[in-house]
Amino acid sequence: MSKNLYHVLGVSKDAADSEIKSAYRKLARKYHPDLNKDDKAAAEKFKEISCAYDVLGDKEKRKKYDNGEIDCDGKPTGFGAGFGGAGGGYQQYNYGGGNPFGGAGGFGGNGGGFDFSSIFGEDIFSQFGGAGQGGFSGRGRRPRKGEDINYTMQIDFLTAAQGAEKTVNLNGKSINVKIPAGTQNGQTLRLKGLGHPSMSGGDNGDVLITMNVGSHPYFSADGLNILLELPITMKEAVLGAKVTIPTISGKVAVNVPPYSTSGEKLRIKGKGIKTKSAQGDEIVTLKIVAPKTKNAELEKALSALADENVRTF
Predict the structure, then answer these.
(1) How many helices (H) does the chain have, and how many strands (E)?
(2) CA triplet 232, 235, 241: central angle to 5 degrees?
(3) Among 14, 114, 212, 285, which residue's Cβ finds the most Cβ atoms within 10 Å?
(4) For residue 219, how many other CB atoms are within 10 A of its CB?
(5) Cβ neighbours of 25 (radius 10 Å)
């Protein structure tokens, strides 16, 4: 059974032109694709109400529809003179080559250019991306860009610090992603043009990859610097020592100066994060660890030391 265009717009058959226009504006705002992303039902509803208004919003077409001369799609029914022939003068409702969001001319018969500003007003374009800036296409406005694809990638700390190339599968396609050295947790990488295609002939969307960087057992990052807390014994702190420590690029030996205290920092030049334009260091913070077991000789030696005031409060 053919649908009733008046029912589509929720108005009576004897509704005034202003009522039809008002009903269409209300429904179009509700079901507009920009406000209902990835909702196919809303997109179909938007097409339906737009098609209904294309007929009922035009006095001549409405009259022909009421007389049964054209159907709900605006096509001639075979009744009445001058319809369906080459010279009939009828313009069929057109989605711009199957595109529900219009092309350069937006909605209209034979590229007639249905202008949304006549229904919504010019301010509608500011709601849907801005006039001529990838929003919904009216006459003379740029086609809307395709939807972006959002993706979250889990990477370990060393991969984020040193950089790497990973392969991910998006929509059945394998994509190589170059992770730059120094990538931070929550940072987003943009792959231009690899998102969804535009529905109106515009540019493809992008792929946005948000990096979820895992923690490390003993490293952390401060900008391009790598931070490490180094436990040392009381003996190493007092007498000094040569200690092997890890870096993000391998192990190195460092000298702990005699009479070091907890909180002192050692800087290992060039052992931090390296980018194309800069090189960080590794900052080592010393932490003196007291013995966990009873040591009579240590107690005797410490007892023989003179008391020293190290507090300033």
Answers:
(1) 9, 11
(2) 65
(3) 114
(4) 17
(5) 15
